[in-house]
Every structure is written in C-alpha cells, then in structure tokens.
Amino acid sequence: MHHEKSGTHYKDIIEHIKDLIATGVYSAGDKFPSERSLAEKFNVSRVPVREALKVLEYIGILKNVPNDGLYVHNLDISHIIENLSFGLSIQSQSVLSLFEVRISLESTACYYAAIRRTGEDITQIRLTLKKMRDLLKETKIKDADYEMLRLYSHEFHALLVRSAHNEILTGIYCSLFSLLELSKQYTIRREFDSYDSLLAHEAIFNKILSKDSNGARDDMIGHLVCARRKLEEAVLADTESVHDISDTAT
Fold it and tell me: Against a cut of 0.85, is the pTM above it?
C-alpha cells in the first residue's frame, strides 16, 4: 500500500514524466511503463498517475495502442513541453477567455457528433457514463472518488469532441484542453454536486444518441456556460485552497 506524499497531484506526475521524455529516458516510439509501475515508481496511488497519463494522451505526448499499452508519440516533444510550461503560467483572465473558446468548440463538436457518431463512439461514451454512475452508487464518496469522477468527466468531454470526427477541431480542442487542465494557480471553493453533473452529461449524451444535433449543441452550451459562471465567481473570490479549474462543475 502506498503512502502518498502530502500534496502529490497529477501535475507533479506530469512534471516527472516530462523530465523522463525531455532527458531521453523515453523517446518517440518507446513503450511507456504501465499505470501500476509508475505508481510504484513515484510512490503514489494510481489515481494521480491515471489522470496524468490521460492528460498526456489527450495532448498527444502519449499514444494508446489498443491491447498493447501507451507509447511515446512521434511528435516534436520540445514544442509540446513548451506548451505545457505555458499552461502553468496562464493568467486568470486568459483562463476565462479560453473557457469561452472551449464552449464554442465543444458545442460545435456536439452538433457534429450527433450527426457523425459511430456505434463505437456511443459504446465508449456510454461506458464512461456507466463508470461515473457506478462510482456514485457508493454510500460515502471519498476524496479519491471525486478525483476519479473528475477524470471520467474529462474522458466524457474528450470523447464527445472525437465523435465529431473532425481532426482539426479535435487538434484545437486538445491544445486548449491542455492549457485549461494544467492551469492550477487559481483558488476555487465550490460545492460540486456530482449527481447533477452526471445528469447534465447524460442529457447531452441522449441528444447525441437520438441524433438531435441542435439539442446536443444547446445542452452543451448551457452546461458549460453554467460552469464558466462558477469558475468566474471562484476566480473573483480569490479563495485560499488551490483546486483544478479545468473542469469546474462539468
């Protein structure tokens, strides 16, 4: 059983992984260690490792090969690392502006996802929602469970974007997502009603499932506009505890 270091977060894991790649320990095409082995290496639980790997996969540093594992993607690693560093120093107003762009991109993605989604897309989105729902069945949700719920929410949003089957839109979204996900210098105090969040996710999914493109777009706009409002209130409040701003009430 791991005794996780105080304050250890997936951002720290990302920094470790970034160093491993930047120093050539792992190069393009190399198979990356498993989630379990990384957790043992960094002496942490698997939750922050899992989230770190997901973020790195979203932004293209790692590539998931089905039934095989994660590999270092054949990309310009130095450029990606510069983007990661920029994401850590972004200003509050920039984050709010980026969130507005996220609303535009995700609502557009939902519109096209309702038209173009495949059976495999539906299966993956449904599986992510099931993981959220199953976790919420627990009588008492622990801190680690909330981290997992947030991770599942990230998966849900990324899957919706990919279901639009527009490579340019997906690429822009991944870059935006990395900035939002890695911007962690603002303080947020919020009550996160995970069940309400699940209902919002399921409502969007049902519109996509029924091929209601306008309804899917409108539901996503409403969902993220509400999230942005809470984010803005949190930034203005300048509270004391640092929390992830990338998925506020989403």
Answer: no
